[in-house]
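Q: Protein A?
A:
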Amino acid sequence: MFKRVILLLLPVVLAGQSASHPDFTGVWGIYRGGPGSDAKLAPPPPSPLVLKAEYAKPYEEKRARESAAAQRGEQLANGSAQCVPYGVPTMMSIAIYPVEFVQTAKQVTIISEAFSEVRRVYLDRPQWKIEDVAPGYYGRSVGHWEGDTLVVDTVGIKPSVSGYRGMPHSPQMHVTERIHMLSPDILHDQVTIDDPVVLEKPVTYTLGYKRMAPDYEMVEFVCDNNREYVDEKGVVRLKLHDQ
């Protein structure tokens, strides 16, 4: 009798443990909503990007140069042309390339198909002080669960990494993400960027993802044999022959 009771209860306990948090594991394609889609599932509009005065003017001038170059059919220098990673938070949404979540009890690993970038979110660990994190493309990310939402805290992004909409940032930039599922097939990542040096106030935007087919396999994407280069005017050119 006692053994039979244990066998009946064990699946219930295990089911409760596995259902305690949503499982984001899988491949997710970029989802922006659009005509015919459910408006409630589309990402909400971003908050205004308000830079402090000493950063706002150079930023707007840079955007104007980029716009003028685009009208001429040119592209100004950027990280992808120079074959460097996008880093956090930009790697979370690159054109049409999907991202993959691999979730375990102690870590969530996020892989972008574009450039095969990888970031690791360590669960239930304290965040280090910014000055104790070696600056890099991905910084140090720690996460914890608030109900069905994964809250991710990232610091340690070096200033040379392009920020949201190409914004400048200081070593003090702090990225907070709130990742949750709106439905079994729609995932949102609400990103808030705070930088007391560069921003007048934090900026928040939301990335949307739609679950891809279970049998989708991520493609290797490596920046190899890159023939793009940046000329003396900062314009991206294509090298047609080896020199």
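Q: Protein B?
A:
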Amino acid sequence: MHRKAVNHLRRVDPVMADIIARVGTCRFKAVEEMTHFEAVVRSIIYQQLSGKAAATIHGRVAALFDGGKPNAHALALLADEPLRSAGVSSQKLRYLRDLSERVVSRELPIDELHTLGDDEILRHLTSIKGVGKWTAQMFLMFRLGRPDILPDGDLGIQKAVQKAYRLRKLPPPARVLAIGAKWAPYRTIASWYLWRSIDGDAA
């Protein structure tokens, strides 16, 4: 499935070729079993939490909706208390309210995001309170499966680049983008390999 991308990365960058050899087969896969709205809700809930805690809260929130599937109109009508009881902080509650209001008012064309270009999607998503560039990039990668996203501000990516390219300091976003320019148009796959290179499984 990712053969063309992997062959390109091997060809243009010997450092990436070494990472690919160590990590092995690319198993990157976008999440298809949720709506765009659900994906953004999940991203907001998961911010700054450990995976286990976030999964627990997300499960409780999902259970508040029919079929366990949050939607904008139902969220807009839901009182604050059930969400707080599920573990949603006051700050994230504001973020979820802003998201649902923008979708209900059609200011955010959530169901059509996949028809737009990467930059336009970033602009739409980062207009939502609590959704920054990183969260929008994760949506592009793991929800839409866009092939050429490099989350230059991601700490894991920066650490992996520092280690792989033997840099003295953690590279700032501009350096990450400069190093990764050659990976285009498959920077999503390169990012997946970078994350895997430092997660302990590829050591």
